[in-house]
Amino acid sequence: MPEGAVVRAITLDVGNTLLFPHPSLGTVYAEVGRRHGWALDPEQVEFRFDASWRRCQTQQTGLVYGIRHEEALEFWYAVNRAVLADRGIAAAPLRAFVEDLYYTFGRACSWRTHPGLPALLAACRSRGIPVGIISNWDLRLRALLDELGISAWADPLLISAEVGVEKPAPALFQRALAAFAVPAGNVLHLGDTWTDDVLGATACGLQAAWLNPTAKPLPQPLPGVHDLRTLEAAVPLLGERR
């Protein structure tokens, strides 16, 4: 990508970049658990969830979330079977719980946007920079973003379950480039995942910003990648107002 190229368009990841569970993932689990007569510890759920999700992701063949709701539910069933493995819950009640979770996390009330989003969007508007979304997510995402009002400004809106391909594969980034009709080096992608977002974007020639709030070490040297603590920290990368 051209060093210091002017940013003429940006794309955002969704999970842990744009959206975060509200009030927290563990709290939502506990609330849903109460509806099923279970007392779930939010901190324990949080502790187990990430490892369970990553393990199931590596074991998945094809798209992680599939292209149908049924495929996504099977993935989330596997994740939650691991999260709740110590509780000895039978298959039928566990599936009912997962379906309830799936519906709950498909609603806007279970999510909050990054606090830096308004500043970033305002900076983009003042510079005439279009903003798109590229996300590995299941089929719930479009309706969720509609409910949150995000679809009104996100164009293109590219979701793996709809397109049939996931980051870091080039196809999602290439579709964004085609929609923007600007050179890859003038597009900035922001996301929290090193492999999917940073490596996926740079492999297609885009600029990349890694949302890294806890200041983890970069997994590998990669010149030109921006290491950001907050979403609004991307504003200086956009250059001066035009």
Would you give an account of this structure?
- The chain has 242 residues and is α/β, with parallel strands linked by helices.
- The strands form two sheets. It has a six-stranded parallel sheet. A two-stranded antiparallel ribbon has the order 2-3.
- It is built from nine helices and eight strands.
- 42% of the residues lie in helices and 14% in strands.
- It has two domains: 9-18 and 114-238, 3-Layer(aba) Sandwich (Rossmann fold), CATH 3.40.50.1000; 23-109, DNA polymerase, domain 1.
- It has helices at 25-35, 42-59, 69-83, 91-104, 117-127, 141-148, 160-163, 170-180, 194-203; strands spanning 9-12, 19-21, 111-113, 131-135, 154-159, 187-191, 207-211, 226-228.
Descriptive terms for the model:
242 residues; alpha/beta; Rossmann fold; DNA polymerase, domain 1; 2 domains; six-stranded parallel β-sheet; two-stranded antiparallel ribbon; 42% helix
Largest β-sheet summary: 6 strands, parallel
The value of Rg in angstroms is 19 Å
Total domain modules: 2
**CATH C-level of the largest domain:** Alpha Beta
Helix and strand sequence: EEHHHHEHEHEHHEHEE
For the residues shown, what is the average pLDDT? 95
Residue windows where pLDDT falls under 50 for at least 5 positions: none
Shape: elongated
* Largest beta sheet: strand ordering: 5-4-1-6-7-8
Q: Estimate the strand proportion.
A: 5-15%
Per CATH, the architecture of the largest domain is 3-Layer(aba) Sandwich
List the total number of helices: 9
What name does the CATH topology of the largest domain carry? Rossmann fold
Please give the share of residues in helix: 40-55%
Count of extended strands: 8
